[in-house]
Automatic annotation (TrEMBL):
<dbReference type="InterPro" id="IPR016690">
    <property type="entry name" value="TSEN34"/>
</dbReference>
<comment type="similarity">
    <text>Belongs to the tRNA-intron endonuclease family.</text>
</comment>
<keyword id="KW-0540">Nuclease</keyword>
<keyword id="KW-0819">tRNA processing</keyword>
<keyword id="KW-0456">Lyase</keyword>
<feature type="active site">
    <location>
        <position position="223"/>
    </location>
</feature>
<dbReference type="InterPro" id="IPR036167">
    <property type="entry name" value="tRNA_intron_Endo_cat-like_sf"/>
</dbReference>
<dbReference type="InterPro" id="IPR006676">
    <property type="entry name" value="tRNA_splic"/>
</dbReference>
<keyword id="KW-0255">Endonuclease</keyword>
<keyword id="KW-0378">Hydrolase</keyword>
<feature type="active site">
    <location>
        <position position="254"/>
    </location>
</feature>
<dbReference type="InterPro" id="IPR059049">
    <property type="entry name" value="TSEN34_N"/>
</dbReference>
<comment type="function">
    <text>Constitutes one of the two catalytic subunit of the tRNA-splicing endonuclease complex, a complex responsible for identification and cleavage of the splice sites in pre-tRNA. It cleaves pre-tRNA at the 5'- and 3'-splice sites to release the intron. The products are an intron and two tRNA half-molecules bearing 2',3'-cyclic phosphate and 5'-OH termini. There are no conserved sequences at the splice sites, but the intron is invariably located at the same site in the gene, placing the splice sites an invariant distance from the constant structural features of the tRNA body.</text>
</comment>
<dbReference type="Pfam" id="PF26577">
    <property type="entry name" value="TSEN34_N"/>
</dbReference>
<dbReference type="Pfam" id="PF01974">
    <property type="entry name" value="tRNA_int_endo"/>
</dbReference>
<dbReference type="GO" id="GO:0000213">
    <property type="term" value="F:tRNA-intron lyase activity"/>
</dbReference>
<protein>
    <recommendedName>
        <fullName>tRNA-splicing endonuclease subunit Sen34</fullName>
        <ecNumber>4.6.1.16</ecNumber>
    </recommendedName>
</protein>
Amino acid sequence: MAELIRISKVGGRYLVFEVKDVATLRREHCICAVFVGTTPQNPNQNVFSGLPIELLAEEAKLLVDKGAAFIADDATSHLTPMDASTKQAYLQSLKTRRRIFQRAADEEKVELQKIGEKMKAASLAKKAASDSSSAADNSLFESSSAPRKTGPSLPGVSTLGRHITPTTSVDILADPQAHRVSIQTPRAYPLYKHLNAGGYYITPGIRFGADYSVYPGDPFRYHAHFMATSFEWDEEITVLDLVTGGRLGTGVKKGFLIGGEAPSEEAAQGAGKDRVRAFTIEWAAM
């Protein structure tokens, strides 16, 4: 059985800190989310964000419903006192990570030294060939046989201090799955679930004035095909909303997708098992 993904609820936001969980979400659940973290020891950078990722409420709800994740109250978890055995295990895990990193750094240094020696040998051979072809007996410059001055050798990697910056504090928790909390169903959840089940990748659509931007595949490879907005089944949709969404969607080369869930007592014609029906509006000419 696959390990459950831990979603930390912090200040009403749903965050995932583990990089392996981020990869699982993208690879197996078509969920990209949004990176909101800053680089350790460089909090002022604002070009590219890193871990953690922030999930939409719809994404967190979907993962819980699928049995792939659980939501934990992070504040309560970290205020729980750490027992001695948990603390010792955490310190040991840091030492183990440091040894692994140290070994990898030493191996990399050895490889770089081998490459440097090959380049130096090639350079000396080239210079020797050039000197032998010179016809001048006397030179204003120093003889090539004169000893070369070399700078002080750099200390080996193993002599430099290496420090590990943990990306998560889940290891200090006695029981990471404790303090679970529930999540309410968001308004647009039926449409989100319907699109996710179709294999679409979904990101926040606020930049286009919609609930979601919908991609046919990973956003690293595709542009969004739709800007989607959810409506209640009996909600009145004004013509102005349709014109605005349709013209904007066409202007940015996307379809304006609207959808909603039919009431349980009313079967919607053309709707699937999830009772969600969606339409796409595109402007014929601009």
